[in-house]
Structures are given as C-alpha cells and as structure tokens.
Amino acid sequence: MSIAAAESVVQSSTWAATSLFYVLLVPALILWYAYWRMSRRHMYELAEKLQGPPGLPLLGNALEFTGGSHDIFRNVIEKSVPFDKESVVKLWIGPRLLVFLYDPRDVELILSSHTHIDKAEEYRFFQPWLGNGLLISTGQKWRSHRKLIAPTFHLNVLKSFIDLFNANSRAVVNKLKKEAGEFDCHDYMSECTVEILLETAMGVSKSTQDQSGFEYAMAVMKMCDILHLRHTKIWLRPDLLFKLTDYAKKQTKLLDIIHGLTKKVIRRKKEEFNSGKRPTILADYNAGTADEATKTTSVEGLSFGQSAGLKDDLDVDDADVGQKKRLAFLDLLLESSQSGVVISDEEIKEQVDTIMFEGHDTTAAGSSFFLSMMGVHQDIQDKVIDELDKIFGDSDRPATFQDTLEMKYLERCLMETLRMFPPVPIIARQIKQDITLPSNGKQVPAGTTVVVATYKLHRREDVYPNPTKFDPDNFLPERSANRHYYAFVPFSAGPRSCVGRKYAMLKLKIILSTILRNFRVHSDLKEEDFKLQADIILKRAEGFKVRLSPRKPTKAC
Ligand code: HEM
C-alpha cells in the first residue's frame, strides 16, 4: 500500500471513530439530562407552585443580573414588587433555585432553626479568602469554634475595650478636621474600624501597626466586588472558567495583601507569646476600677442590636463565662492552640481573616449610612446632639459604658439606620429538607438556596408604616413591643447570629457620638437620591458623600 493510501485509511478511520464518538455522545448527553431532570422532578414540581418573574430555558433569570452593581440591586428590588403580597419570590440562576423570603414568620423558621444552619453554596467563593472560618463553616467544626469564639465578645470583655474605642474615635475626629468640603466618609470609617479591630480583638498595639490597615480595607472592598461578580454573573461561577479571567489574577494579588496583614498580626502575637508575654484576663477590668454602672453585665434588647425577646449565645450571664474565656479573641485562640487540640494554626488564620472582614466592613457601612442620615435629617441630628450635650455638657471627656446606655435617641437612630440600610442585606442558607412556609403553607424543596431578604423584610409596610421614611421612633419601646421578633434582624438571629453584635453596637455608639460631639454633618443628597449597591455589603454607589462643620471650638484631643 502506498503512503498516501495508508494516510487515507488512517484519516478515514479517525473520522469514523470521531463520528462514532459524537453519535454516542449526543444520546448519552440527552439521557444524562433526562435522568438529571427526573432526579430533580420533585424540586421542579414544588418550585412551580412558587411565584417569581418568568425566566429563559436553561438560563432561568440569570440575565436579570446584568449591568453594574447598582443596576442589579435596583432591578432585583423592582422585579420583586409584584410578589410583595406573598413575600416569597423564586428565581432560577441556571440550574440553581433561589427562594427569597421576607415574611417574619418564614424568616423565623429559617433563622431560629438548628437544622437549617448550612450556608448556601454561593458562600464557597469566600473560601480562598476565609477558608473554613466561622462565617462559612458548618457541622461540628462550626459548633466547636462558635463555642470557643462567642465568649470573646462577651460584654465584660467588650467593656475593657472602651478606652481603645475612645482613643480611636478621637483619632478619627482629628483626621476629619482636615476635610473642608464634600468627601466620602466611608474611607475614614473603614480605616478606623480596621485599626480598632487590630487593637481590640487582635490585641496588636498601635505602636506596632503601620499603614497596612488602610491598604487592607481597600483590598477587602475590591475582593467584595469580585465575589459579587461571581455571585451574579453565571459564567464566572465555575472555578475552571473563573481561573481563566483577569479577575482571578486580581483576586490573587488582593489576597496577598489581605492575608499579608492577617499573617503579620498572628506572627506578632505569637512572638509575644513565645517571649513569655501572657494574655491579660480582661474581666479584671471590672473587678476593682470600674464603678457600679460599668459592672452591668446583662443589658439586652435594642441596646445590643436586636428585638427584645430574641436571645442567643451572646446573652449569657457573667457567671457562665469562666475566667479563661475572658480573653480577647486572638489571645484566646493562641492560648487554646498551645495544647494543639482545640484549634490548629491554619484554623486560627481562617478565624482571624473572618473576624477582620466581618468586623470591619459591616461597621464601616453602618456608621457611614448613619452619618449620611444625620446629614439628610438635620432635625433628627439636632435631637441626637441635644442628647449628647445633656450627657457630656461641655466636657470632652471620653465616653463610659454607662454613657452609651444613656444614648437612647442615638441608639434609635442607629437601629433605624440598620433597618433601612442593613449592611448585610441578604442571608443565604442551603436547605437539605423540604420546608413548609408558615406564612402561606407553600413548600420549598430540599436543595434550594433560601435567601432571607433582610432589606425587603425591613421595609414591609404592614410592619413599619411609611417604611421608606427615616423615623427613629420606629424603635420606641411601645412600637417595638408589638412587632414580630424576626421583623428586625440586621445581625441575623438564632444560633448563627452575628457573633460581633454587641461589639459592633458599643463601638458604633462611641465612634458616632464622638464624631457628633465635634461636628455637625450635612448632606446635599436626600436618601431617595442614594444609589444603593450590594457587593456583599450594602453601600452607596456614589460614595458616602457628606460635609462637616465644627460644632464648637474643638479642644485638642
Ligand atoms: C453593623 C455591624 C454588623 C452587622 C450588620 C453584622 C451582620 C451580620 C450578619 C447578618 C451575619 C449573618 C451572616 C450570614 O449568615 O450570612 C453576621 C455573621 C457574623 N458576624 Fe457580623 N455584623 C456586624 C459586625 C460584626 C463584627 C464587629 C464582628 C466581629 C468582630 C462580626 C462577626 C461575625 C461573624 C464571625 C459572623 C459569623 C457567625 C456564625 O456564622 O456563627 N460581625 N454578621
């Protein structure tokens, strides 16, 4: 046989093999698809009975998530309106079924449950950053780490941070003095909240910090942009495709910055440990020096960010917190790891990354929204200032714990800010078994991503009359008393509630009161002009633009 003839035989047999492959592949794919659809029949049947905007074959509603972050947020909110009566909206993103809930009874079913505590599949995008930290871990690992970490945010530990909250609040006031015109207050709030976290929960003294706090905060913001893109753009979801994009390269660089800071923090702390410096038992703070008022250990309800009547593992009495547990967060983790049993080095890093993220971006957004609202509502700001003047008079003394309990009106303004602009606008869980919604008896199938739509829940007309109006009186005790406990959940609730809830409230009251003792805030925009976006954390797309004017000749801080 000639070479040409041999080549032709090889070519035709290759062609035949390729054709055979495709001839077999197509029916195989059809069979696989039919089987896959069959195996999900139960899900489709139940989903069919839930309402939602119409979608396209295969893609579902994925195209609702095109455009920038602000367009997506506006689009999703607008598209949900026709379903407000039932407060349940179904969306398909490709094969994934998402069910948004915003009736307090349905929210209670999810958040109060010890069964539905697994985070949704979408949280896996956080994994390269937060590993298996408290926010995303599940099962026994989550349970044991939550038990370890929650006491480090007990009120008695937090009271020992008050001096540091004050010092950092004064420092930010000093920095703000240079702002003459309109500026974005979020940058200041971000830097300040990172520095406070480093000094308190991580126990890293100011003298050993450098500029990396601000760089860290900016890297976190950009990381959130990338994660949001992965949540909303269907083609960025598979790791394989994501890795081919420029976003993946950007993510690697951002994680270098983020992990660079957390590794440095742990390294410094370990050096201190190894050089024999043992952690301070923080509860000693209350033993001798503090007055009766600061010994208060069981202040609950609104003062600490949730409806009266909701309890979680942060609301334990002082007597239940053993002395060893009265350590700051990182001190306790390192102390525990000395035995090598409770928590490994890698796990410490994951938890430090988690607390650094959850602890700063949320409070930076909350405080920036608060300042924006003060700027918009001058009459309400007057009342906050009156209250502060009554507490502090002309003195520029630091705030005490008792002062924070007396800031009742400021507290209501803070609650109202967290109602209208919850920094975490949605909470997503993966359900492993069918659930029946108490509000309407409909069933949501196992395998669904159930999304508690906090932003929508907090704007229900039947719960908050005139829900788009900023009205701190919504949180007057008599108004809150008759409200469903789960109608206000800025910090989530139940077994997976925010572990930093009390820390956040105390810190926010001290920062915000210190700012308003020194400045009056102004805003040229009204809240209806705010462009909201939800890149994981709710923000103003145009930046948190405000202006400040000095309230009184400020004494040198
Ligand atoms: C205004 C400030 C804050 C808000 C609105 C907020 C809100 C939330 C929400 C809604 C969750 C549940 C998230 C979910 O299930 O997907 C959460 C969880 C969490 N938060 Fe916060 N948070 C704030 C501040 C903080 C602070 C200051 C810390 C730590 C210092 C913190 C640490 C955590 C942690 C570790 C979790 C995960 C808890 C678990 O799953 O067991 N947060 N937070």
Q: Indicate the overall shape.
A: globular
Largest sheet: 4 strands, mixed
| Order of strands in the sheet with most strands | 1-2-7-4
> Total number of β-strand segments?
11
CATH fold topology: Cytochrome p450
Q: Ions, cofactors, ligands: which are bound?
A: protoporphyrin IX containing FE
| Percentage of β-strand residues | 5-15%
How many structurally independent domains?
A: 1
Mean pLDDT: 88
Separate helix tally: 21
CATH H-tier superfamily: Cytochrome P450
Structural class: alpha+beta
**Distance between the terminal alpha carbons, to the nearest Å?**
98 Å
CATH class descriptor: Mainly Alpha
Q: Give helix % range.
A: 40-55%
Radius of gyration: 26 Å
Low-confidence regions: 283-297
In CATH terms, what is the architecture?
Orthogonal Bundle
Transmembrane segments: 15-36
Binding site for heme: 498
Pfam families: p450 (PF00067)
Protein name: Cytochrome P450
